[in-house]
Amino acid sequence: MIVALKVMPRREVLDTQGRAVAESLQRSGFALESCRVGKYIEVQVEESDPDKALEKLREMAEYVLYNPLIETFEMEVVQGSGQ
Question: How far is CA 62 from CA 35, 72, 73, in A?
């Protein structure tokens, strides 16, 4: 089963990378108010139960994949074991 983790900077944390991307896009003529940059991680786990797969991903996230002081995360099942 493939599960995914979307990690984003907390709203109250200055996102310097997002700010740099926004400024570059604005200088190039793109109209936007802001930009936030995060990371997307897909993990294939040996699990057939979606809830158990997401729990494994949560354990991985809390262990090393995100920093709870400055980031938040969302999880999803991308591909079930039968697909």
Answer: 25, 10, 10
